[in-house]
Amino acid sequence: MFRIVWHTISMAAALAISLSATGHATWADAAGADATSQSAETTTDVGSATEEAKAESEFRLLMVEQVGCVYCRMWNNDLAPIYPKTPEGKTAPLQRVDLHKPFPDDITITGGKPLFTPTFILLQDGVEVARIEGYASEDFFWGLLDQALKKNGADYQPLSN
Fold first, then answer.
1. Whole-model pTM?
2. What is the 8-class DSSP label of residue 104?
3. Phi and psi dihedrals of 132, rounded to 5?
């Protein structure tokens, strides 16, 4: 009995992942659409302050996301509210792009079009210099972002040090 239940759950999860990867709406979209749109609104509500930060910074963090992405939703819940307040967020302000829409003209992607969401692309003067594919947890994200910023000469002091 346990095998049947486990197999059914595994198949449902695989189906949900494959449908979201192809861009088709899933039941997860309905549950997460509000959270995703609220996080996007929160980012855009910052408005001119975010635009000013982008203009002042040589770095930007481009978040490539898509509707129905469970890991995007996790990042939005875990880190989106605090990211702009962190030293990393001030050094590399966040900019969001939908995986299925054209990227802004002022961006040069050197690592090819992202395949997974979320993909975080560190831009220096509009050119990709590092990439973080996926989101597993806060610890991995902050550690990888810290390495990418330091490797590319960002002058900031992370809170952990």
1. 0.67
2. P
3. -120, 115
